[in-house]
Write a structure and sequence with these properties.
By secondary structure, the protein is an alpha+beta fold. The protein is built from 15 helices and 11 strands.
């Protein structure tokens, strides 16, 4: 019997077997870890020639470091380290002061040279450069090399088109100034006034700046914090309420005016010494928002406690006008911010001027003080109620005009943003 040889199975090509599917790739061995690059992409700060002089309790170098830290740049290096740095470097003269809105400009604009405000003698203040250009830029800031030879985009603050500050509701050119012994007082005043809002009441805008300046300059080197000042202001708020409630209007007005003055000082102290905090902001603005209605109610009950002949009907009508008007005006301001995209007080110039006398705390205190001075505190509260109703009507008119303008021409813009 013949036995047939058994045929060996033919191996199929792996290509045919995997036809229609991608062939598996050979395993790739992981690459060895590459050495870290010496190139740095994060900017660093370098203060050039920092003198030993202070403004508002801070040395100029400390102030600059804090300002850049607020903007997100906390790493500071020496001049030698800046020259060796391969990434972006922000160079600032150590004898200069720079307004906070200019800090982001330096962080965002490469190959940029910031000049001072003085148009006649434009001095280089700060520069944003790469590591290879640091040495040349340092010479420019020291004045040993003309800034035209640095091949940087040189601009003064007035040339940056940033006069409108939405956060402070005002139109103002930021400052960049070299501090000297001769201009020190002028620089302090400029820095102080730079902390004021543009749309505010007549007392804050015209009466308090000078005394608040000297109070702030006195408190800053003593280590007094803004929250300490706000705490004293809160005590004055309660004291005024107590005096009003008991019909002691003159001492109550003294405490109330003291509170409004301290309310100015705490904010200016926080901004000039760069010690603002979220808690301080809530503390300060919370008191501002809540206390006025309590003062008016206390004043009304104080009138009832005296010999003033007020009926219950008149009392509640006055309270309804003042409290209702106060709440509705605040609501109108909130509606404008939410649905119109800007504060109603900075839409037109007339709105900003009207903000100086609108029925808010300080203008109302003027009315109460004037009528109390002629022994008519009841007339004072009636005047506040009348003025509140009038201002409410004007605010409603403002809001309707604003919505009509938005519907007709699109989103609203503040008059402060226009040339």
């Amino acid at each position: 019997m013949t036995t047939k040889a058994r045929a060996k199975p033919v191996k199929k090509s792996p290509v045919k077997r995997l036809q229609g599917k991608p062939a598996p790739q050979a395993a790739i061995a992981p690459k060895p870890a590459e050495p870290k690059s010496s190139i740095h992409f994060n900017p660093v700060l370098c203060i050039v020639n920092a003198p030993e002089q202070k403004l508002w309790s801070l040395s100029l170098e400390e102030r600059l470091r804090k300002q850049f830290a607020i903007a997100g740049l906390a790493q500071a290096v020496s001049e030698a380290e800046a020259i060796a740095h391969n990434g972006p470097v922000i160079l600032v003269r150590g004898d200069a002061v720079i307004d906070q809105p200019l800090i982001p400009v330096l962080l965002k604009r490469p190959n940029f040279l910031l000049l001072g405000n003085d148009a006649e003698n434009q001095m280089p203040i700060a520069a944003s450069v790469r590591g290879s250009d640091v040495s040349s830029a340092i010479e420019v800031l020291r004045g040993t090399k003309p800034f035209a030879a640095a091949k940087l985009l040189a601009r003064a603050p007035s040339q940056l088109d940033m006069e409108f500050w939405k956060s402070l509701r005002k139109r103002e050119t930021p400052y960049a100034i070299v501090v000297t012994a001769e201009n020190r007082s002028i620089v302090e005043w400029r820095m102080f006034m730079g902390t004021y809002k543009g749309a505010t009441d007549i007392v804050t805008k015209h009466l308090w700046p000078v005394p608040a300046f000297y109070a702030t300059r006195f408190l800053a080197p003593l280590g007094v914090t803004p929250n300490m000042v706000t705490t004293v202001a809160a005590l004055m708020t309660v004291l005024a309420f107590w005096f009003f409630l008991n019909g002691q209007f003159l001492p109550g007005l003294f405490a109330a005016w003291a509170m409004t003055f301290l309310d100015t000082v705490d904010g200016k102290l926080a901004r000039t010494t760069l010690t603002s905090s979220k808690w301080g902001d809530y503390f300060d603005h919370g008191i501002d928002l809540i206390h006025p209605p309590f003062w008016y109610v206390a004043w009304g009950y104080g009138l009832l406690a005296t010999e003033t002949q007020w009926s219950n009907g008149l009392f509640w009508s006055v309270m309804a006008a003042i409290l209702g008007g106060y709440i509705l005006q605040r609501a109108i301001e909130g509606i404008a911010i939410k649905w119109l995209g800007l504060e109603i007080h900075i839409w037109r110039s007339i709105d900003t001027y009207f903000r100086q006398i609108t029925a808010r705390r300080n203008p109302n205190l003027i009315l109460l003080t004037l009528f109390t001075a002629i022994a008519k505190p009841d007339w004072g509260l009636l005047a506040v109620a009348s003025w509140t109703v009038i201002c409410l009507g004007l605010h409603v008119l403002q809001l309707l005009q604003a919505f009509a303008a938005k519907r007709r021409a699109g989103p609203l813009t503040s008059w402060m943003t226009k040339p």
